[in-house]
Write a structure and sequence with these properties.
The structure is a single chain. This protein has 324 residues and is of the alpha/beta class. It has two domains: 209 residues, P-loop containing nucleotide triphosphate hydrolases (Rossmann fold, 3-Layer(aba) Sandwich), CATH 3.40.50.300; 106 residues, Magnesium chelatase subunit I, C-Terminal domain (Helicase, Ruva Protein, domain 3). 45% of the residues lie in helices and 16% in strands. The strands form five sheets. Strands 3-6-9-1-10 form a five-stranded parallel sheet. It has a two-stranded parallel ribbon with strand order 2-11. Helix 1 packs across helix 3.
Length: 324
């Protein structure tokens, strides 16, 4: 698949999603960036803003298997991964696959499950495999986890630890719709549910091809240095107790390449990096408690850090392009 085909594929899926979801163009782009770069997404927002609807609409637009897990305090790790059970009729153990064995997995209200159950996702998200009773089973590709959580309710919830947050390529917030978008939503749902009538527009083979080709997007040495300047600034900032890890810098690289691809370019520019810094890095840093009580403080700190970092000039980027 050519890079131009990646943009066409994303546009096709986005147009299909927008038959159900009103507005949220940038949010849909980020969700599709995660799909193209084989990443996972954490959707965090108040109830009723369309988190689950967005995930289900994207899954229905793809010719892939989809499973939803409703996370609750009594959910067991084996409910997610599966288990070996003894079949008395056959006189032997058989494996019963859990809900994780699907291409697109919706982990709804993930922070309502206990840490033990949450941790059952770690291996599958990072290594695309599940180990049960000493036997490792590979998950079918493409594989993507879309998790949702409600940041408002604290009672009966278990916040995701930093190690698990780091597994998500992107963290998103939908936010409330504008007044006009609210009216459009009411009009769209007056009759039938539009989710019931949309159809698959992209098959599994096309997704896998896109996931292979996006990495050919050219990234100059100056852009790489620019990204590392941002990453290292989070490690040296006096307002941050835990900076971005090497996994985080790799996630940023994947995201900016996918972002450039869906914009129809074969190379990364500084604006691509700026666009991806907050959704990719904000949930990977831990701010000092004295300032962390403010809303979206991590995102604001990143914004201030990026402002102070020198941006590669056009001449430097052109020099890198000609020398590739």
């Amino acid at each position: 698949m050519e890079l131009s085909d990646v943009k066409n594929l994303v546009d096709k899926v986005k147009n299909n999603i927008q038959k159900v979801i009103v507005g949220k163009s940038e949010t849909i782009d980020l969700l599709l960036i995660a799909l193209i770069s084989s990443g996972h997404v954490l959707l965090e927002d108040v109830p009723g803003t369309g988190k689950t609807m967005l995930a289900k609409t994207m899954a229905k637009s793809l010719s892939c298997t989809f499973k939803r897990i409703q996370f609750t305090p009594d959910l067991l790790p084996t409910d997610v991964t599966g288990l070996n059970f003894y079949n008395q009729q056959k006189g032997q153990f058989e494996f019963q696959a859990g809900a994780i064995f699907a291409n697109i997995v919706l982990a709804d209200e993930i922070n309502r499950a206990t840490p033990r159950t949450q941790s059952s996702l770690l291996e599958s998200m990072e290594e695309r495999q599940v180990t049960i009773d000493g036997e490792t089973r590979l998950l079918k590709r493409p594989f993507m986890v879309i998790a949702t959580q409600n940041p408002v309710e604290n009672q009966g919830t278990f916040p995701l630890p930093e190690a698990q947050l780091d597994r998500f390529l992107i963290k998103l917030r939908l936010g409330y719709p504008s007044r006009q978008e609210g009216i459009d939503i009411l009009k769209r749902f007056i009759g039938n549910d539009p989710l019931e009538i949309i159809t698959e527009v992209v098959d599994e083979a096309e997704i896998l091809a896109a996931q292979k080709s996006y990495s050919s997007v050219f990234v100059s040495d100056d852009i790489l240095s620019y990204m590392m300047d941002i990453v290292e600034s989070t490690r040296s900032s006096s307002n941050i107790t835990l900076g971005v890890s090497p996994r985080g810098s790799q996630a940023l690289l994947k995201a900016v390449q996918a972002y450039a691809a869906i914009k129809g370019r074969e190379y990364v520019i500084p604006d691509d990096v700026k666009a991806m810094v907050q959704p990719v890095l904000a949930h990977r840093i831990v701010v000092k408690q004295t300032i962390g009580i403010q809303t979206n403080q991590a995102a604001r700190l990143l914004e201030e850090l990026v402002k102070d970092i020198a941006v590669p000039t056009e001449s430097e980027l052109e020099k890198g392009l000609h020398g590739k």
